[in-house]
Amino acid sequence: MAVTDRAGNVTQFRYRTEAGVEHYLERILDPLGRPAARTEYYPIGYGSEMAHQTDGPDADEFGYGPLGDNAMRQFLYFGSAVLVAVILGASSAWWVIGQGARTFVRNGPWHYNPLVGSAAANAHVRAQIARAGLLALNSSEAVYFLAHTDSDGNPLHGDRTYRIEGGDLDARWWSITAYGADHFLMPHDGERHSCCSATVRRDADGRFIVYVSAAERPGNWIPVCAGAPFLLALRIYNPGPSIRDHLDAVELPRIIPEEGPHE
Prior knowledge:
- By secondary structure, the protein is of the alpha+beta class.
- It has helices spanning 68-99, 123-132, 241-244; strands at 2-4, 10-15, 25-29, 35-41, 47-53, 62-66, 105-107, 110-112, 142-147, 162-167, 171-180, 194-196, 207-213, 221-223, 230-239, 254-257.
- The radius of gyration is 36 Å and the shape is rod-shaped.
């Protein structure tokens, strides 16, 4: 292949002739027929070095400079840097989401994030809500308390039995639901996963006891899976001022462990 400029000077581009590599540029000859550049290739076809004509009368003297090796090194360097940045960024974001926000209001074993369901929720809070699968309402409509531990501060576990003791809350409706560590309902033979203000059995003073265990209990009972950790969610709908204005002080149900070893 040759290219002729306006002055009639011809520069030649010579390609390899072997079958399958005809598109490999091998040498460039200047208008005086001198080799201006030569390309060396790896066996797999990538250019490894570009040789260019050096100063001096000898047209066959070449100085070699990195072509493919340097380009590949730069690609691997920047590609590795980008990959590491992506991994670190994704890992740190996932860790922050898993850790939860640091704006929790704590009340005994229960904790509540006032940003849930709020327009002020930042990206991390929204990601936490999406990860947990929580369809959050505004705090004036609902308050969501979670408990990962009992009232003694020990992690909730299906090998133990717990009593949830409390009284009616200042709200239109409330419920307590057990979830697995993945924030999904725990698989078991029964259809029962929670109790609520409309169905819980109360004593003469209007107070209740709800048992949480793997083994069936009479009366108010929420089943969980043996051998697995779990969490409890206390949903309070249309909470009254005594709850909304005193989230950290209002009386909430206690979670009392009975028997069984702590994990």
